[in-house]
Fold this sequence. Notes:
Elements lengths: L15 H16 L30 E9 L3 H8 L5 H13 L5 E11 L4 H18 L2 E9 L9 E12 L14 E6 L8 H11 L7 E2 L4 E2 H5 L7 H10 L4 E4 L4 H7 L6 E6 L7 H10 L3 H5 L6 E7 L4 H10 L4 E9 L7 E4 L5
Parallel strand pairs: 2-3, 9-12
Antiparallel strand pairs: 1-4, 2-4, 5-10, 5-11, 6-7, 8-10, 9-11
Helix pairs in contact: 1-4, 3-4, 7-11
Amino acid sequence: MSETTGASYAAAGVDIEAGDRAVELMKEWVKKTQRAEVAGLGGLGGFAGLFDASALKRYERPLLASATDGVGTKVDIARRMGVYDTIGHDLVGMVVDDLVVCGAEPLFMTDYICVGKVHPERVAAIVKGIAEGCVLAGCALVGGETAEHPGLLGPDDFDVAGAGTGVVEAEHLLGPDRIRKGDAVIAMASSGLHSNGYSLVRHVLFDRAGWALDRQVEEFGRTLGEELLEPTKIYSLDCLALTRTTEVHAFSHVTGGGLANNLARVVPDALHATVDRSTWAPGAVFDLVGKAGQVERLELEKTLNMGVGMIAIVPADSVDAALTTLADRGIDSWVAGEITDRGAHTSGAELVGDYAK
C-alpha cells in the first residue's frame, strides 16, 4: 500500500506560525496608541480589546458613536508600489473623521486585515500605519484580526477595514438641528485624493492613459505612485479643537459621493448650502484625472473630494475664530459658502461658479 499524508491547515495554505510572527512584530506599534483607559487591560493577543468605561463618568449623558469603513481600491496602489505603512493612515482617517462629524471624540479602534498569504513584515507595516494614524487621531488601537484566505486572494492581495467608537456629550451633539440660515461653510483642504474614487482613478490613469506608477509627473514633483499613495488627512483632533474654541453647528466629512452630496447629508430640509468653487483651486491630481479620462466636471465632483476633505458649518460671528484655530493647527481653510433658505432648490447643497486657477 502506498503511504499517504493527511491534510493540514498549512497544506491548505494557512500559515499559523507566520500569523504569530506578524502579531509579535506589530505589538510595539499598537502599544504607542494606548490611552489611559486601555493601559494595563489585557494588551494585544486577547480575544477582545478592553476600554475602561469608568472614564465616561465625567459625562452627564454620554452618547457612543460608532463607524466602520475601509479604504477601497487604494489598496491596489499600495500592493503594486510595495508600500504598506501608509494605507493605515487612510483607514483611520475614514473611520475617525466620520465619528467626529457628530462631535464625538474617537476613543478606540479595531482593524481587520485580510490577506492571501501572511507576510509577517508586510502585515506589521500595515498595522504600523494604522497605529500611527490612531496616534494622530488621539484614539487607541485595542485589537484586530488578521485573516489568511488562500485560494480566495492571491499571495500578494490584501484588504483592510476598521471600526471605531467615540463619545460625545448629548447636549454637544452636532448636526442638522443646529444649522441656521446665515451660517458660514468653512472648507478644510484635503491632502489629495484621500481614499475615495480610486476605481475611477485607476481606470483613467492605468487602463485608458496607460501611465505607470513610477512615471515622474512634473505637476506633482514626484512619481504618480507617490501622489496616489498620499495618506488621507486625519482631521479629528483639529475638529475637536474647533469645538472647544468656537461655536460649531456641524461637520461634514467629504468622502465617497463628493462634496455636495456629503454636505447635503447634514443640511436640514428647510435650508440649503451653496459652495462657491471660485474660493479654491483643486490640486493637480484632480485636473489630471479629469483631462486624462475626459471626465466631466460633475462626474469628478460626485466621485472625488476636489481638494476639500472636511467641512465645518459655523455661525457667521465664529468665522474668524474658526479660521484662526485651524491656521494655528496647520490646516489650510477658507470660507467656501453659506447656508440659505432652501427655496426652489431640490438638493441640500450645490457647487456654483468656476474653480480658481
